[in-house]
Structure formats: C-alpha cells, structure tokens
Amino acid sequence: MIQIKLRQVQQRIAQACAQAGRAPLSVQLLAVSKTFGADAVVQAHAAGQTAFGENYIQEGVDKIRQLAHLPLQWHCIGPIQSNKTRLVAEHFDWVHTIDRLKIAQRLSEQRPAGLAPLQMCIQVNVDGGTSKSGVTPAEALGLARDVAALPNVRLRGVMSIPEPAIDFIAACAVFTRVRTVFNALNAEGLGLDTLSMGMSADMEAAIHEGSTMVRVGTAIFGGRTYPA
Ligand SMILES: *Cc1c(COP(=O)(O)O)cnc(C)c1O
C-alpha cells in the first residue's frame, strides 16, 4: 500500500516537473512519517525512499534510533525549543525550521564532532499565517548570513509552510513569494540549492514555482490520527 502511494506521489512529481518544463530529478521527495511507526518507514524504504521528515523531536529520535541500521536521511521539520536542540543536533541530518539565530547557534555548538555539518533551511513566513513560525522576508537575509557563518552548519536553503490556498493559482501566488526570498538570498551570494515547499495538497503549485524539495505525508502514509 505504501509502495503504491509512493509511486503515485513520484508520478505526480514527474508530471508537475514536465508541466513546468523542469527536469524530473530537480525535485526531491521528503516522506513525512510523523505519527507513523518505524514499520511504515521500513516499508517506504523497501520501496526506495531514503529521506524522511519528522515534526516531533522525541518521536523522531525514537524512530532514528530504532532504524539506525538503515541508510536513511532524517529531516527535522517541526518547531525546536531550546531544551530539544541537543537531541536534534545529535540525531538529525537536516533542520528546516530555523527562524531564530539562538536555536541555530545551539545546534551548531551541540553538533557532535565526527558528524557531517547539520544542513539547515531558514523558515520564512510569507503569508502571516496562523502558525507564527518563520521570519518575515525582510528578516531572512540577516538571519541567513548569521546562520551561514556558524561552524558546524551548512545553510542549504529556504523553507515555508503557507496556509492552504483555495486553488492552484492562489497557491502559486504564495509560493512565488517564497521563491523570491530564495532568489534574493542567492543574489547575495549565499549559494543555496534547496527550496523546501509543497505538501500533499499543493505540491504541483510548489513545483511550478520552483520547489526543489516537497514534504509529503498524507499522500504516502494516509491520514493521521492525531493532528499536525
Ligand atoms: C505534516 C507536515 C507536512 C506533510 O503534510 P501532508 O499534508 O500530510 O503532506 C509537510 N511539512 C510540514 C512542516 C509538516 O508539518
């Protein structure tokens, strides 16, 4: 079942790339396994998926520990409080939700020697949505420069979680604002390669507007029985 849904999502990505005139391999799929067990991750991995996203730190770390024998890449896509930075620094490969320098500094300080730098994205809030996370577009450059200068970090890009839009056109209008921030940071020489946007309901619009990484949960694993 997960295998079939994974194929369907890969086809949606390929079709959206074709329609946008983009190379099919220009968009990576991050499978969002939050609320699902390690067994679901094992099934997705058996079907060829290697990158997984988790929102809740402790839940994610439990899965990472259980599945340490598999060559998986783990992305933290949920909010991080100061008291959770050490767990994130020690276990995850990527963090998409950087919107405060203090958190990025702690993650850098706590990244164990011997692990690769922690890959980071700056979270941008382009629609003032009810989720208050994310910096404004105007704040993004200053934070990005500071984060890029941290020793055990590699700044990779920009991430956003816009409010659901009413249709494709409206979704594109919001995603294009995220891409504008991404382009502006690159115009300042930050050398970013990751634009993390698009979920189950709006990945086509995100890909149309330049997403390089879609974060997809429901369309792969099914509906979640507890929220977020
Ligand atoms: C849950 C979540 C997703 C996946 O959402 P779906 O609609 O289930 O595809 C993507 N990004 C973030 C930050 C999430 O919290």
Question: What is the element layout, followed by pairings?
Answer:
Elements: H1 2-19, E1 28-32, H2 38-46, E2 51-54, H3 57-66, E3 73-76, H4 85-91, E4 94-98, H5 101-110, E5 118-123, H6 137-148, E6 153-159, H7 168-187, E7 194-196, H8 203-208, E8 213-216, H9 218-221
Parallel strand pairs: 1-2, 1-8, 2-3, 3-4, 4-5, 5-6, 6-7
Helix pairs in contact: 4-5, 6-7
Give a structural overview.
- This protein is an alpha/beta fold and 228 residues long.
- It has one domain (2-221): Alpha-Beta Barrel (TIM Barrel).
- The protein is 42% helix and 17% strand.
- The chain contains 9 helices and 8 strands.
- The protein has helices at 2-19, 38-46, 57-66, 85-91, 101-110, 137-148, 168-187, 203-208, 218-221; strands spanning 28-32, 51-54, 73-76, 94-98, 118-123, 153-159, 194-196, 213-216.
- It has an 8-stranded parallel sheet with strand order 7-6-5-4-3-2-1-8.
- Strand 2 (51-54), helix 3 and strand 3 form a beta-alpha-beta unit.
- Helix 4 crosses helix 5 and helix 6 (137-148) packs across helix 7.
- The chain is globular.
- The two termini are 22 Å apart.
- Bound molecules: pyridoxal-5'-phosphate (PLP).
- Pyridoxal-5'-phosphate binds at residues 32, 34, 55, 77, 161, 199-201, 215-219, 228.
